[in-house]
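Private note to self, pasted from the team thread so I don't lose it. Backbone tokens:
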């Protein structure tokens, strides 16, 4: 089989940081305003009073301590509670494209590639800034690449699904060098007014350069030994925002138009699915879970990741075995597992095995088995 490698990665993170303490102060301020505004309905039993949040609750529930966002002022404004982003004209580079280009340039530098070397661009993310023209085509144009480009969305698994599409393109000969980017501005679809999820997400963008081994020149390369994708329909993570909304005459700010989930059900169902998926994938290439040097998992919940690894290898789950970036970045959707790989892979030795795995809405699960060359 044609050898495909990851030859470079890149990461963009915003300058704005929201700590848990800042977030709780803002959210609790909103709760006070809401409860006061709706006091009569709450007293009559027509509405439920909102409950305050706390730093302790957030860290126990998720392991998150802070998050990067494109704009913190709008999020922390108790009269707004979502980012305030300046509109751009059609002649300006879109915000998602801008952060993708920044991550892409870092990945290209790491891989020793120029724009002329890239002939395919995949923009894989949980939410696109617009329907068309494709974000990927704008990114392709902004970096000066040729070939073709397309968008894809598999929620939090978009990056691993994107990696498989890149592998397939390279092995089929439809591309020689693929840029796969994950611009995740999750703060835009986050529901900052919901205690159960107001702390979950953060913004970031990752980029991965993939190419055939015989064209790779970077100092660090990872051979892709296999990819495996799976989906199973579930409504337990959902967002109904879309272009059909106006046709349905539903309010633009209705609760179902932003992120929502049944967190306990997701935890109970996804953990065994993810563990079984990884185990079966490793078995298909004759690798035991205990032979894997490092797992770079989707960064959504600390307890979830620890339980997945325990099911695979047993024993203590250390940051060395399964690195955590969740505490710093929060859940960055599809970018999370790639951030973990980007930040915590340099110390591995030649021949070491690793697994990049993501799981999320769909349900969707994607895994990539790699070996350091």
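Design output:
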């Amino acid at each position: 089989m044609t050898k495909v490698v990851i030859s470079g990665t890149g990461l963009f993170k915003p300058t704005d940081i929201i700590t848990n303490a800042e977030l709780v102060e803002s959210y609790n301020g909103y709760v006070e305003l809401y409860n006061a505004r709706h006091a009569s309905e709450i007293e009559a039993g027509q509405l439920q009073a909102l409950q305050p949040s706390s730093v302790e609750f957030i860290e126990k529930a998720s392991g998150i301590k802070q998050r990067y966002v494109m704009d913190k002022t709008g999020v922390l404004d108790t009269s707004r509670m979502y980012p305030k982003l300046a509109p751009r004209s059609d002649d300006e580079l879109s915000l998602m494209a801008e952060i993708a280009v920044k991550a892409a340039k870092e990945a290209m530098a790491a891989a020793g590639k120029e724009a002329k070397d890239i002939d395919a661009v995949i923009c894989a993310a949980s939410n696109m800034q617009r329907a068309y023209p494709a974000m990927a085509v704008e990114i392709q144009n902004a970096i000066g690449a040729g070939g073709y480009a397309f968008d894809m969305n598999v929620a939090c698994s978009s990056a691993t699904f994107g990696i498989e599409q890149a592998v397939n393109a390279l092995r089929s000969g439809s591309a020689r060098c693929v840029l796969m980017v994950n611009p995740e501005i999750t703060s835009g679809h986050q529901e900052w007014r919901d205690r159960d999820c107001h702390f979950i997400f953060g913004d970031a963008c990752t980029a991965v350069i993939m190419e055939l081994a015989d064209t790779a020149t970077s100092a660090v390369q990872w051979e892709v030994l296999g990819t495996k994708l799976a989906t199973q329909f579930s409504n337990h993570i959902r967002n109904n925002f879309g272009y059909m909304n106006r046709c349905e005459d539903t309010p633009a700010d209705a609760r179902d138009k932003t992120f929502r989930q049944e967190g306990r059900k997701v935890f109970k169902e996804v953990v065994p699915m993810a563990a079984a998926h990884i185990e079966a994938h490793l078995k298909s290439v004759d690798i035991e879970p205990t032979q894997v040097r490092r797992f770079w998992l989707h960064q959504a919940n600390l307890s979830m990741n620890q339980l997945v690894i325990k099911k695979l290898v047993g024993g203590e789950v250390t940051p060395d075995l399964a690195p955590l970036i969740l505490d710093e970045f929060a859940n960055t959707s599809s970018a999370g597992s790639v951030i973990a790989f980007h930040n915590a892979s340099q110390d591995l030795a030649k021949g070491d095995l690793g697994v990049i795995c993501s799981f999320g809405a769909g349900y969707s699960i994607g895994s990539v088995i790699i070996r350091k060359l």
